[in-house]
Design goal:
Layout (H helix, E strand, L loop, with lengths): L1 H19 L3 H4 L8 H10 L4 E7 L4 H9 L4 H10 E7 L5 E3 L5 E3 H7 L7 E5 L5 E6 L5 H12 L8 H9 L1
Parallel strand pairs: 1-2
Antiparallel strand pairs: 1-5, 3-4, 5-6
Helix pairs in contact: 5-7, 7-8
Length: 171
């Protein structure tokens, strides 16, 4: 009886965990058209707060960690999709794109222009295409990444450092 109860609890726990995780490419990132000036118009029309870019590279273990442990969680995906259009940028990719000012460039050159050398870097842009906040590295967990989203959405980045915001939220 105890063994059956334990098996049932473990099965329910695994279903709960599985239900909370979703494919990052389908549920976190938007399909990019390669024209960020046009994406700004879309973000405005949809009532978003801005655009979030994840600068990454294929062989980056920290990028994979973010995708496999945080960005795949439904709560994270739902919150960020509500407030931002979200796109990946490969810092080694020579793929042609149009930046927020309407200039043709490549993902690699765009990353360099935004001083992205290590990955991952999450760079938030306002609806005018101006960078407003940069988060470099891996978030500790989904809670911290959600705090980051709220920090930008609420505009707190304008007056309070993120580490202070996190400390206040922990109280």
């Amino acid at each position: 009886m105890l063994r059956a109860l334990l098996a049932a609890i473990l099965m329910l726990a695994s279903l709960t965990v599985a239900a909370e995780k979703r494919d990052v490419n389908q549920y976190f990132f938007d399909q990019k058209i390669g024209d960020f000036k046009a994406e700004l118009a879309t973000a405005k029309a949809q009532g978003k707060k801005g655009i979030l870019l994840m600068f990454e590279q294929e062989d980056c273990p920290w990028c994979h960690r973010m995708k496999d442990t945080i960005l795949n969680q439904s709560e994270v995906q739902d919150y960020f999709k509500q407030h931002f259009l979200i796109f990946p940028i490969d810092i080694k990719n020579e793929l042609t794109m149009v930046d927020f000012k309407g200039r043709e460039t490549t993902e690699k050159a765009f990353a360099a222009e935004n001083r992205v050398r290590a990955t991952p870097v999450f760079l938030f842009f306002d609806l005018e295409g101006n960078p407003v906040y940069r988060f470099t590295g891996v978030a500790k967990d989904a809670r911290e990444f959600l705090l980051l989203g709220r920090y930008v959405v609420e505009g707190t980045y304008k007056s309070v450092p993120f580490n202070v915001y996190k400390a206040q939220a922990a109280q």
